Structure formats: structure tokens, C-alpha cells
């Protein structure tokens, strides 16, 4: 048979093998109905059961309390860059942003189209390689919400502490690349959103977890399909939802709980990322220059002191079935994304190769 292939893509990322196998088995005949999930009406009893199961799967994995709504949305994470300000930003208020790099800046730039934004903390001074520091000159009571990105997928920076303001300003988190990777206390957040293509399922699906009291104050021009109140009332079916993606998400949630839930996944993720950073730190040809306590457990960028080695490293990796290790086009270098579905054996195969490569190149 084929040798094991490990896909380190940052997203769309690898999915758990048993999930793909089940989807394959059921592809043309879902549970004896004679049709594919893709061909089921979104109003059918069968699909409603899938939607219900997906919502409850996520609720139980994250311990989402009843006063939070769970929405499945279309378009991945980016539509939430618009939806959050359109729903939460008032005309007299401001949206606070913690600037930790690429994705927080994307969210901030989009919010600025719909109202006032204030950068309240930043790690720009360290070129986004360390934890952000609070900036002065803003009033916490003028903020309608505070937005942050707990894991910067490209920079490889993760914030393990939840930021706290002295007021009860709702905290909004873009958890696209860290949702379900470690425990979060949902009650610390007003709103959580994520694109599915890392830890949940196929690209194009989004998940929004929104606290009940934040509904109903959307800006007048907020498009109907971005209005959380509308989406809640329509139970994620304000238009035809991405049914097959929701089905796959449901299977991934079942897989996550079969692994032992989020605490177990978090333990695996810590072991995987420790193994990888350890080899990078011991290497004389590789480095990662992110402040150690801000190093991401999901996305591990690494660079060669001698840039000329990079292309032969990547080509050799590819030949061994270690796929998609090139860094983001804006960052260069290499990056290993090691989400929930990446087994320890995949990281072991990568570190074995890194050591072997080093031994033949020094
Ligand atoms: N936020 C973060 C943290 C991401 O990593 C990404 C995608 N890599 C996005 C937002 C954008 O997601 P999408 O392409 O689904 O809009």
C-alpha cells in the first residue's frame, strides 16, 4: 500500500482519517436513504437531525451554555470580519482591536469600514513576535467590544491568556485556527467565530457562538444574511446552508469526543508542539524567533539561517510524504500546521526528517 502521507497545510487542513472514511462509505447512500447527504433537502428530517447533532456536538465539546446561540454560516471566517462590527458596533461607539499581526489586522481593516476602530494593544514593536502590550489613549467605556485573534495562523503566535478589560466590554475572538485545540471558557466571551477548515471541517463553513444579549442591535444597513438575529431566528437556515460541510463538521465533532474531548486533544497538541519546537531549538540550521510563551501550538513557523537550504528541505519533505510545509506567501520560510487531526506520528516523521536533513547539511 501507499506510504503514510502527512499534510501540514494551514487550511484547508488534514481531516481525521476515520471521518473521511465514513463520509466515503456514506457518500452515495446516506444511512439507507438511497441518496447522498449532498442531495438531501436542508428542510428534510434527515438533514435537520445532522444539524441538530452538529450543534449539540459543538455545545458539548466546548460546554457552551444555553444563553449562547450556535450558528453555522457560509463563507468561512472572513464574513465575520464584517458581520461583527455590523452587529455590535454602534454609531457613537468604537471597536477595540488587539493587533497581533496578519489576521487581526484583516479584521480591524474591515471593521473600520463600518465605524470607529481603536487599536488598544499591539505587538508591532516586536514585529509581532511577542505578546502584545496595552497602548494608552483609549477609554475602555467607549468600546462596544474588544476583538482579538488568540492564534495568529501565519505568524505562529498564540495568546494563552484571555485579555481582560476593567469593564464588562464583550470580548470577541477569531478562533479560526485554535477552536477545539484547547479548553476555552465560553463565558469569558461575548462572541466566538471560526472558519471550519482547520479544526472543524471543509473550507467555506463558519461557526459563530454568540451570547443572547448581543443580538438585536445590528446597524440598519446590515445585510440580512450577516444579521445574527436573523440567523438565530432561522436556525442557521436563512438561506440554504452548506449542508455537506455541516455533515462533515458533525463527524469531526464526534471524532473529537471519541478522542476524549478537548482536554485530551489539548494534551496531544502540547506534546506535538513541544516535540517540534524542541528539535527546532536544538538545531544549528533552523530557528523560530517567537517569544517562547507566545509560541503557537497549532502553527509552527521555522526558518533556515541559510535560506539556500529551504528549497531542498521542502523538496525532500515532499518526497517523503511530508506535504505543504512552505510558509505563507507573506512570511516565507517553512510552517508546519499541526491541528487536532495531525497525529503524533506525523510530527515524529517531520522531526526525524529535520534531524536527518541537518546531519547531511552541516
Ligand atoms: N482568521 C484566521 C485566524 C485565519 O487563520 C483565517 C484563514 N487562514 C481566516 C481568519 C480567514 O478564513 P476564511 O478564509 O475562511 O475566510
UniProtKB/TrEMBL annotation:
Cofactor(s), by name: pyridoxal 5'-phosphate
Top-level lineage group: Bacteria
Location within or outside the cell: Cytoplasm
Keyword set includes Transferase: yes
InterPro entries according to UniProt: Aminotrans_V_dom (IPR000192), Aminotrans_V_PyrdxlP_BS (IPR020578), Pser_aminoTfrase (IPR022278), PyrdxlP-dep_Trfase (IPR015424), PyrdxlP-dep_Trfase_major (IPR015421), PyrdxlP-dep_Trfase_small (IPR015422)
Pathway: Amino-acid biosynthesis; L-serine biosynthesis; L-serine from 3-phospho-D-glycerate: step 2/3; Cofactor biosynthesis; pyridoxine 5'-phosphate biosynthesis; pyridoxine 5'-phosphate from D-erythrose 4-phosphate: step 3/5
Reaction(s) the record says it catalyses: O-phospho-L-serine + 2-oxoglutarate = 3-phosphooxypyruvate + L-glutamate; 4-(phosphooxy)-L-threonine + 2-oxoglutarate = (R)-3-hydroxy-2-oxo-4-phosphooxybutanoate + L-glutamate
Record-linked SUPFAM superfamilies: PLP-dependent transferases (SSF53383)
GO BP term, example: L-serine biosynthetic process
Cofactor details (free text): Binds 1 pyridoxal phosphate per subunit.
GO molecular function ontology, one term from the record: O-phospho-L-serine:2-oxoglutarate aminotransferase activity
Keywords: Amino-acid biosynthesis, Aminotransferase, Cytoplasm, Pyridoxal phosphate, Pyridoxine biosynthesis, Serine biosynthesis, Transferase
Sites where the protein binds L-glutamate: 10, 43
UniProt EC number: 2.6.1.52
Keyword check for Transferase: yes
UniProt: pyridoxal 5'-phosphate binding residues: 77-78, 103, 153, 174, 197, 239-240
Task of the protein: Catalyzes the reversible conversion of 3-phosphohydroxypyruvate to phosphoserine and of 3-hydroxy-2-oxo-4-phosphonooxybutanoate to phosphohydroxythreonine.
Protein family membership: Belongs to the class-V pyridoxal-phosphate-dependent aminotransferase family. SerC subfamily.
Oligomeric form and interacting partners: Homodimer.
PANTHER family listed in its UniProt record: PHOSPHOSERINE AMINOTRANSFERASE
NCBIfam families: PRK05355.1, serC_1
Descriptive protein name: Phosphoserine aminotransferase
Amino acid at each position: 500500500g501507499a506510504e503514510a502521507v502527512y499534510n501540514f497545510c494551514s487550511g484547508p487542513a488534514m481531516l481525521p482519517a476515520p471521518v473521511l472514511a465514513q463520509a466515503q462509505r456514506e457518500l452515495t447512500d446516506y444511512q439507507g436513504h438511497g441518496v447522498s447527504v449532498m442531495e438531501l433537502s436542508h428542510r428534510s428530517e434527515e438533514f435537520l437531525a445532522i444539524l441538530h447533532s452538529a450543534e449539540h456536538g459543538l455545545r458539548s465539546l466546548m460546554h457552551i451554555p444555553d444563553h449562547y446561540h450556535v450558528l453555522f454560516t457560509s463563507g468561512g471566517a472572513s464574513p465575520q470580519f464584517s458581520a461583527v462590527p455590523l452587529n455590535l458596533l454602534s454609531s457613537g461607539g468604537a471597536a477595540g482591536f488587539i493587533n497581533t499581526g496578519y489576521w487581526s489586522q484583516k479584521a480591524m481593516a474591515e471593521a473600520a469600514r463600518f465605524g470607529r476602530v481603536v487599536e488598544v494593544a499591539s505587538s508591532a514593536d516586536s514585529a509581532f513576535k511577542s505578546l502584545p502590550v496595552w497602548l494608552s489613549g483609549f477609554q475602555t467605556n467607549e468600546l462596544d467590544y474588544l476583538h482579538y485573534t488568540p492564534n495568529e495562523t501565519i505568524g505562529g503566535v498564540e495568546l494563552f491568556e484571555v485579555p481582560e478589560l476593567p469593564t464588562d466590554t464583550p470580548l470577541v475572538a477569531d478562533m479560526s485556527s485554535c477552536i477545539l485545540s484547547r479548553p476555552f471558557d465560553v463565558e469569558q466571551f461575548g462572541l466566538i467565530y471560526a472558519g471550519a477548515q482547520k479544526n472543524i471541517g471543509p473550507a467555506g463553513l463558519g461557526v459563530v457562538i454568540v451570547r443572547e444579549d448581543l443580538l438585536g442591535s445590528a446597524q440598519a444597513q446590515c445585510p440580512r444574511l450577516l444579521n445574527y438575529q436573523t440567523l438565530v431566528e432561522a436556525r442557521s437556515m436563512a438561506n440554504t446552508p452548506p449542508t455537506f460541510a455541516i455533515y462533515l463538521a458533525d463527524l469531526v465533532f464526534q471524532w473529537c469526543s471519541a478522542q476524549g474531548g478537548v482536554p485530551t486533544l489539548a494534551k496531544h497538541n502540547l506534546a506535538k508542539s513541544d516535540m517540534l519546537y524542541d528539535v527546532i531549538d536544538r538545531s544549528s540550521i533552523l530557528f523560530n524567533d517567537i517569544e517562547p510563551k507566545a509560541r503557537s501550538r497549532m502553527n509552527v513557523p521555522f526558518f533556515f539561517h541559510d535560506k539556500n537550504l529551504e528549497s531542498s528541505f521542502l523538496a525532500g519533505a515532499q518526497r517523503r510524504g511530508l506535504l505543504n510545509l512552505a510558509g505563507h506567501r507573506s512570511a516565507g520560510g517553512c510552517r508546519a500546521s499541526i491541528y487536532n487531526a495531525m497525529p503524533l506520528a506525523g510530527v515524529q516523521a517531520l522531526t526525524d526528517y529535520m534531524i536527518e536533513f541537518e546531519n547531511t547539511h552541516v
